[in-house]
Specification:
Blueprint (H helix, E strand, L loop, with lengths): L2 E6 L5 H15 L3 E6 L9 H15 L7 E7 L10 E7 L7 H4 L7 E4 L2 H8 L5 E3 L15 E9 L6 H9 L7 E5 L14 E5 L5 H10 E6 L8 H8 L3 E5 L4 H4 L5 E4 L1 E7 L2 E6 L1 H13 L2 H31 L3
Parallel strand pairs: 1-2, 1-3, 3-4, 4-5, 5-6, 7-8, 7-10, 8-9, 10-11, 11-12
Antiparallel strand pairs: 13-14
Helix pairs in contact: 7-10
């Protein structure tokens, strides 16, 4: 058993989700885990880091614990004040949010734990020690919910899911099936006319089971991300056995393959921090929707079953990949 210090900005959204999933996985592997929530940006040496250092030193002097953690694992942003609290340190980056200041400090880590292959390639090219751990996502499948041959786009509060262009494309095609869009008021912008086949719901939904019903009630999930650190909403869709329409660019196409989803061609559209950004091709989206609409029930079932099988394989393999990465630092 190792004593592990998990350090991350608890933002109440994606990072909070990651903290919980990683902490639980480490505990399941038999490790003791302490979680320290930190501000988004590091400024000097935070008092909390001093406090942890003093507490551990006092406990060590009294023979009640180690002077330092065996391993510190930092999520997304680099917080240098906490690195000295552990004998070794690893970073789990989301490349699209890894700032220039963060990237200058990567050499201070003993390993970069990458969620995706494209992240591995990005950081390995800089001569950094990389290990691919992938990640895991919540199982959102609910039995007994009738599935409609409609389309769902869970935009949430993200500005990088291609939502505005998707809405515009759907408005140009009133003959397409219904697209249900759930978007946060914090990021939604007024659009044009709303055709009968577009249900654009701008709201916060606190009832997680209501979201699970939406996820399971739709045969097709449209996930046209511009970038992803991992892609929880893509993996969650596959956990429901849905057919995902995903951007044909890394890392989105690492998750969705032709055998269990539909890929939409995209062009590179700039960059954000350490990640490329991708914009889906509108003609390719039209072709993918046409394919989905024409899909027979047997093919739909086959792809959905294969998507669920991919999800289960990924979940089952995460613990082994994480254990191997940790053993490499022992």
């Amino acid at each position: 058993m190792a004593m592990i210090h998990l350090i991350a900005w608890d933002n109440g959204r994606g990072l909070t989700h990651d903290i919980t999933l990683l902490r639980d996985a480490l505990v399941d592997l038999g490790h003791q885990v302490d979680v320290t929530p930190v501000p988004r940006k590091s400024r000097g040496l935070p008092w909390r880091a001093w406090g942890i250092r003093a507490r551990m030193l006092l406990g060590w002097l009294r023979g009640r614990g180690p002077r330092r953690y065996d391993l510190g694992i930092t999520l997304e942003h680099v917080h240098p004040a906490y690195l000295g609290l552990a004998r070794r340190n690893a970073l789990v980056p989301n490349p699209e949010w890894l700032s220039r200041r963060d990237r200058k400090r990567l050499h201070r880590f003993d390993a970069i734990f990458c969620k995706t292959e494209v992240a591995r390639d990005t950081f390995a090219a800089q001569g950094l020690p990389v290990r691919v751990i992938g990640f895991q996502s919540i199982d959102c499948r609910r039995d007994g919910i009738p599935r409609d041959r409609a389309f769902l786009h869970l935009a949430g509060a993200s500005r990088m899911k291609g939502t505005e262009r998707l809405l515009a494309a759907w408005r140009r095609h009133p003959e397409w099936p219904v697209l249900h869009v759930l978007q946060s008021p914090s990021t939604a912008t007024p659009g044009g006319t709303t055709p009968a086949n577009l249900d654009h719901r701008i709201a916060y939904i606190d009832d997680i089971e209501a979201i699970r019903r939406l996820q399971n009630a739709h045969a097709f999930h449209v996930c046209l991300s511009e970038a992803e650190g991992w892609g929880h909403y893509i993996v969650e869709a596959m956990s429901c056995g849905a057919v995902v329409l995903a951007t044909d660019a890394a890392p989105m196409n690492e998750l969705v393959r032709p055998g269990h989803g539909l890929l939409v061609a995209a062009r590179e559209n700039g960059s954000l921090n350490a990640s490329s950004l991708w914009a889906f091709d509108e003609a390719a989206l039209e072709a993918a929707v046409t394919t989905a609409v024409a899909m027979d029930d047997a093919t739909l079932e086959q792809l959905g079953t294969a998507a669920r099988a991919w999800y289960e394989r990924n979940q089952a393999g995460f613990a082994a990949r994480l254990r191997q990465a940790l053993d490499g630092l022992a």
